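Notes from the 1:1 (GR / supervisor)

We went over the backlog. Supervisor wanted to see one worked example end to end before approving the batch request, so GR pasted a single chain during the call. The sequence is below; no edits were made to it. Supervisor asked that the structure be written out right there so they could see what the output format looks like.
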Amino acid sequence: MRFSSPMTHSSQRIFRCDAVTELRGKPLVAELERRFVVAHTRVELPGGAVDIMHPENTDALISEEDMVRDDRLPYWADIWPSSRILSRALARENGTGHTLLELGAGLGLVSIGAMRAGYDVLASDYYDDALLFTRANAWRALQREPRTHMIDWRDLPSDLRVADRVVAADVLYEDRYPPLVVNVIARALAPNGIATIADPGRPMVEQFFELLPMHGLRLRNTEIVEYDEPPAKQTIRLHHIVRSGDARE
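Structure output shown during the call:
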């Protein structure tokens, strides 16, 4: 479904204007519909389906400037199978009274599942636009927004606080990411907390496991969930990480 005419790439660039960042609710949704050609995808979650608004054509978001600077591609603008599985798993939990940090929030589906479970969510991403869509989709689904934070895994912010849950969906797709993700978890996971990485079988997950002990972390257990929703069919693994001194099973 289209809400506006196709726009040039320059009009779909990251918009850093404070006036846009400060928009909430309907005005934020309207601004995204004005600046992007958007589409909608229905995603089933415990407690009822949600409608996720996203850019219609992710290829139109590719920026040569971002590629030259740090090889960034707009993966945030897709709804990945791992994010569907993780969002459903979180939505079944009881998060009341607990904090949760999402790494690579993208369109906000995982954060929505966590918020529905009662978690106090901090959604993070490396793209401004991702955080705007996360906030907009959460408001559309729940009539409230998560807290958000721009986070560069290579240079963690000094004000990053620990969380009871640290979660991420399909973030180990390049060989440079396992050490960065392990470092974020080691920094942000609260004592007795649990980190969960949803992964579709990326080769880099083995490097991730090898790095855990060096950061005082260990793999507690792995859940296997079969995903079969056309056009994708994948085996998603939910890897649950705890601190080495945590004896819980």
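Supervisor's comment: The mean pLDDT is 89.
Batch request approved.
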